[in-house]
Design goal:
CATH architecture: Alpha-Beta Barrel
Largest sheet: 8 strands, parallel, barrel
Radius of gyration: 19 Å
Number of strands: 13
Number of domains: 1
CATH superfamily: Aldolase class I
Length: 349
C-alpha cells in the first residue's frame, strides 16, 4: 500500500478523474473573445503550419502536456502514455512535482520518461515553497540530472498548501532563493501557478529574479482548493475551502497582465484549456505555448493511442480556427485583427 507523498499523488489523480474539481462560477475569461469569420481565407487548409520553438527546440505544434502527476503506481502508466504521445506529436511535456523522486524510491519510473520522449522538450517540476524546507540549487540540479530535463519549472501553490492537510505554508522570502536556483542551474528555470493564476506584477518580479518563462496557470479549470477539500480530514479546512471555490485570476486576465509587463518573455497559457479554439484565443492575446492537463488525463489512463486522439483533435481545432480567419502561420494568428475582445473588434482599429 502506498503511503505519504505517494498516496497523496494517487488521491490527486483519482479525484481529478472522478469528482467535480473545477472552480465554481469561475471561467477562463476566454468566452469574451471571438473570431470574425473570413469567407475568403485565400489559403490552403493543408498548408497551415503549427510549428514553433520553445526551450531551444523545435515543436510541431505550440502545445504543452502540463504538469500533472508522478510518484505513484497509477502515474507510471499515465506519464509513459503522455510521453510517448508527446514525442509522436512534437509537444512539450512537463512532469508533476518531482519532489517525490528525491524523497521516495517508490515509482521512480513515473518520472524517468526521457526514454519515451527522447527529442521533445521535457520540463521537471518542483514546488517553490520547498526552497524554504531544505531544498536548494543542489537538489534542483539533481532533479534535472535524474530526469534529463531541458528545464525546471518552480510551481507556486500557496492556496493549495494552505488547504492541504500536510501543506507547507512558509512562503516567506522565497524570491531570493528562486534567484539563487536560477543562477545555479545549467538549464532555464520557469515559474507556474497551479490554477489560481500569475499576474503581471508577480511575473515581473519573477523574471527580474532570473525566471526564463511564465506559465500563468490561471483560474477556470481545476481548482486545487476544491481538490484538497475533497481529500481533507480537517473539518475546518473543508468548510473554509467552500469560501474559496471561485478564487483566482482568470487565464485570459493573466495572459494580458503578464504581456503588459513583460515583452520577449515566453508565456505559457494553461488553466482551463479544453480545445484548440481556446488555444487560438490565448495565442491572439499573447500566449506562446498552450498547456493542457485534465483534458488529456483521462485518455492517459487508457492508452497512448487515446492520448494521441485527444491531441489530434486539439490540433485540428486550432487549424480550423486559423483557416476560418485566413491565418496560415502562428505568427499570422498572433497578429490577426479578425478577433473581437469583449465586443470590441480589432478590425475597427
Amino acid at each position: 500500500m502506498e503511503a505519504g507523498i505517494n498516496k497523496r499523488k494517487t488521491e490527486h489523480i483519482r479525484l481529478c478523474l472522478t469528482d467535480a474539481v473545477e472552480g465554481v462560477n469561475k471561467s477562463t475569461g476566454l468566452e469574451g473573445i471571438s473570431f470574425i469569420h473570413n469567407a475568403l481565407p485565400e489559403i490552403n487548409f493543408n498548408d497551415i503550419d503549427l510549428r514553433t520553438n520553445f526551450l531551444n527546440k523545435s515543436l510541431k505544434a505550440p502545445f504543452l502536456v502540463s504538469s500533472m502527476t508522478g510518484g505513484s503506481e497509477l502515474a507510471v502508466q499515465i506519464n509513459q502514455n503522455l510521453a510517448k504521445a508527446a514525442e509522436e506529436k512534437g509537444w512539450v511535456i512537463a512532469l508533476g512535482s518531482t519532489r517525490a523522486l528525491l524523497e521516495s524510491t517508490a515509482h521512480q519510473d513515473s518520472f524517468l520518461i526521457r526514454k519515451h520522449a527522447p527529442s521533445v522538450p521535457l520540463i521537471a517540476n518542483l514546488g517553490a515553497v520547498q526552497l524554504n524546507y531544505g531544498y536548494g540549487a543542489d537538489e534542483a540540479q539533481r532533479i534535472v540530472d535524474l530526469t534529463e530535463a531541458d528545464s525546471l519549472v518552480l510551481h507556486l501553490n500557496s492556496l493549495q498548501e494552505v488547504f492541504q492537510d500536510e501543506g507547507d505554508v512558509n512562503f516567506e522570502k522565497l524570491l531570493p532563493k528562486i534567484e539563487k536556483v536560477c543562477k545555479s542551474l545549467d538549464v532555464p528555470v520557469g515559474a507556474k501557478e497551479v490554477g489560481f493564476g500569475i499576474d503581471g506584477e508577480t511575473a515581473r518580479r519573477l523574471h527580474d529574479a532570473g525566471i526564463s518563462y511564465i506559465d500563468v496557470a490561471g483560474a477556470g479549470g481545476t481548482s486545487w482548493s476544491q481538490v484538497e477539500k475533497l481529500r481533507s480530514q480537517n473539518p475546518l479546512h473543508k468548510a473554509a475551502a467552500e469560501a474559496f471555490n471561485s478564487w483566482g485570476n482568470p487565464t485570459k486576465d493573466c495572459i494580458v497582465s503578464v504581456k503588459s509587463e513583460l515583452t520577449g518573455v515566453p508565456v505559457v497559457a494553461s488553466g482551463g484549456m479544453k480545445t484548440g479554439l481556446d488555444a487560438a484565443k490565448a495565442i491572439t492575446i499573447g500566449a506562446d505555448i498552450i498547456g493542457f492537463a485534465r483534458k488529456l488525463l483521462e485518455a492517459a489512463t487508457t492508452s497512448t493511442e487515446a492520448v494521441l486522439e485527444a491531441m489530434e483533435q486539439i490540433e485540428l481545432e486550432l487549424k480550423i480556427t486559423m483557416f476560418g480567419i485566413g491565418a496560415k502561420t502562428l505568427e499570422e494568428l498572433k497578429n490577426t485583427k479578425r478577433v473581437s475582445i469583449m465586443g470590441r473588434s480589432l478590425m475597427d482599429d
